[in-house]
Fold this sequence. Notes:
The chain has 321 residues and is α/β, with parallel strands linked by helices. Helix content is 36%, strand content 15%. The chain has helices at residues 48-62, 78-90, 104-112, 133-150, 162-179, 194-206, 261-275, 281-295; strands at residues 20-22, 32-37, 71-74, 94-99, 116-120, 153-154, 185-189, 211-217, 255-259, 301-306. The strands form 2 sheets. A 6-stranded mixed β-sheet has the order 1-2-10-7-8-9, with helices on both faces. Strand 7 (185-189), helix 6 and strand 8 (211-217) form a beta-alpha-beta unit. The termini are far apart.
Amino acid sequence: MTFADTILPSALDAIGNTPVVELSRLTKDSDGRILAKLDYLNPGFSKKDRIARQMIEDAEASGELRRGQTVVELTSGNTGTGLAIVCGLKGYPFVAVMSKGNSMERARMMAALGAEVILVDQLPGSKVGEVSGEDLELVAKEARRIVAARGAFRADQFRLKGNFRAHYLHTGPEFIKQSGGNIDAFCDFVGTGGSFAGCAPAFKEHNPDIKCFIVEPEGAAVLAGEEVVHPNHRIQGGGYTMADLSMVKQAHIDGHLQVSDDEAIDVARRLAREEGIFAGFSSGANVATALKLLKTSFPGKTIAVIMCDSGLKYLSTDLWK
């Protein structure tokens, strides 16, 4: 089924089945292909719509979430936007807890969608647009306090299996079908690790030879076992220096790659100018890494990436100066 062929009952049913495009203009000087899944075309403009729906529907099925119960989650804005949509349509009050270091477009969008948005101060010395692991821990502490005070359900994207299940059940299989199974490698900028943890096993079950790479910011590559020297990187939505991402399985990781702030920003801008894809920092990070792979260990191969969220969420940041 394609969305163009039917009338959907709600925006929930418009989540997923996003298109895949070949980035032929960015790769014109490279030997190989990059296939980009445009998950910023979900209703909430990010891949996180998928996990929001999956986590809530899993909790409904298990009985963990009661009718009318308040839902709470910490977010850099994308999961919160997805949860605002899902909870609004299903009748659950939703509280989004976010660092003031994240772009304000996200907070305004969540509020417009009916969420109660609580913004948490950054640590002294932190800069807007640079959210460290320590800043995120302040957000996590506030989220835990609100859950306890309100008897709420925590839609914990770092813990709940719905995060990776959404990508294992849907994103990965969609990508395989749309590409005709012609994928040699997959690289994914890791935030919670859900899209990697879901897509990597789906790809490897299809073809064990598909190589799957974790992408982290330079200077904050904790999963690669490196010392954190740049916790205040500018690639929002990941690299939080959280080493305990339990849903990411070592057996699915074929390598660890790093990308600099400037590389991610430059390629995000090139995606807009050259491919007509208006995406955010992490999408730039994914494509920058894929371009490196084509020029090094994967010449002539096909690399899969996800366009994680929309550039509209970063208009107030230096990404679009």
